[in-house]
Specification:
Length: 310
C-alpha cells in the first residue's frame, strides 16, 4: 500500500484558511444556535413536524460547532489516532450526514404537505417525525462507530487519509449520504415551487411568494454548502483509483477547503431557523388553499372525463 507525502507549506495555508472561516462561524454560530434553541424549545407552543426537524437540526449543528476547533488542531498537528480522535470522528461523521438527512426530511415534509394535502394528515405527524429522526440518529451513531473498526483504517494520524488505497465504502457513503438526498431535495423543492407558482397564477398572495423564497433559499444553501465538499471527495476517490499520488496533496487541500464551506452550514442554518419560525406561524394557512386548489383541479378533471352510461 503506497502512502503519499504531504506539503507542509500547503497544510499551514489550510490552517490559516480554517481560522479565517471558523472563527466567524463559531462567533456567530454559537449565539445564533442558542437563540434558535430558546425560540423553538421555549417560545413556540404548538408541536409540528417543522419544529421537530429544526430542533434535531440544531442539535446536529451544535455538535458540529463543538468539533470545529479540533478539526483545526488535527490539521495543524499530527495527532495520533486515540480516544480523542475517535470521539471527534464520531461527532463529525454523525452530525454532518444528520444535518443533510434532516434537511432532506424537511424538503420531503414540505412536498407532502403542499402536493398531497389531503393525505398529509395521515402521513405527517410530530410523533412520526421524531421517530424518523431517532432512527436516523441511532443508525448514524452505530455506523460512524463501526466504520473505522470494520474497514481497516491504517492511517497514522487523526482525520488524515495518507494511503492511496481506494476506499469503496467511502464511495457508498458519498452516494447514499449526499447525492441521493441531493436529488430528493431538488425534486421536492422544484415540485413545491411549481405548485405554489401555479397557485399564484390564479390567486396571487404575498404568503405564496414568501414560501417560494424560503424554499429557494434553503435549496441554494444546501447545494452551495455541501456539493463542493462531496464532489472533491469523489475526486479523491478517482485519484486513488488512478494511483495518481502526485495529485493527492492538492486534492486533499481542496477537500479541507471545501469542508470549511460545508461546515459553515451549521452557522448558515441559523438563518433558515428564522425562516422556519416564520413558516411555523404562517404556512398552516397555506395548506387549506392548496387543498382547495387541488380539489378544484380534481373536480375539473372529473367533469371533463366522458361518462359511460350503459
Amino acid at each position: 500500500m503506497k502512502n503519499c507525502t504531504e506539503d507542509d507549506t500547503l497544510q499551514n495555508g489550510i490552517v490559516l484558511f480554517q481560522l479565517i472561516v471558523y472563527i466567524p462561524v463559531l462567533s456567530l454560530g454559537i449565539p445564533l444556535n442558542g437563540i434558535a434553541f430558546w425560540v423553538f424549545c421555549c417560545k413556540l407552543k404548538r408541536w409540528t413536524e417543522t419544529r421537530v426537524y429544526m430542533i434535531n437540526l440544531m442539535v446536529a449543528d451544535s455538535f458540529l460547532l463543538f468539533a470545529l476547533p479540533f478539526l483545526i488542531y488535527f490539521t495543524k498537528y499530527n495527532h495520533p489516532i486515540d480516544k480523542l480522535c475517535y470521539t471527534i470522528w464520531n461527532i463529525y461523521f454523525t452530525n454532518m450526514p444528520m444535518s443533510i438527512l434532516i434537511i432532506t426530511l424537511i424538503a420531503i415534509d414540505r412536498y407532502i404537505a403542499i402536493k398531497f394535502p389531503l393525505k398529509a394528515k395521515i402521513l405527517r405527524s410530530p410523533l412520526k417525525s421524531a421517530s424518523i429522526c431517532g432512527f436516523l440518529w441511532i443508525t448514524l451513531i452505530i455506523y460512524s462507530y463501526l466504520y473505522p473498526k470494520f474497514h481497516g483504517r491504517t492511517e497514522k494520524f487523526c482525520l488524515r487519509k495518507q494511503s492511496s488505497q481506494p476506499n469503496y465504502s467511502s464511495l457508498f457513503s458519498i452516494i447514499v449520504g449526499y447525492f441521493i438526498p441531493l436529488g430528493i431535495v431538488i425534486f421536492c423543492s422544484v415540485q413545491v415551487i411549481k405548485c405554489l407558482k401555479k397557485k399564484m397564477a390564479t390567486s396571487p398572495h404575498e404568503l405564496m411568494q414568501k414560501a417560494i423564497h424560503i424554499v429557494s433559499v434553503n435549496l441554494c444553501v444546501f447545494i452551495v454548502c455541501f456539493s463542493p465538499f462531496y464532489i472533491t471527495l469523489l475526486l479523491r476517490f478517482a485519484v486513488d483509483v488512478a494511483g495518481a499520488c502526485s495529485l493527492v496533496s492538492e486534492v486533499r487541500a481542496s477537500i479541507q477547503i471545501c469542508a470549511c464551506l460545508a461546515n459553515s452550514n451549521c452557522c448558515l442554518d441559523a438563518f433558515c431557523y428564522y425562516f422556519a419560525a416564520k413558516e411555523f406561524q404562517e404556512f398552516p394557512s397555506l395548506f387549506p388553499t392548496c387543498i382547495s386548489m387541488r380539489s378544484t383541479m380534481n373536480q375539473s378533471q372529473e367533469s371533463q372525463q366522458p361518462t359511460d352510461k350503459s
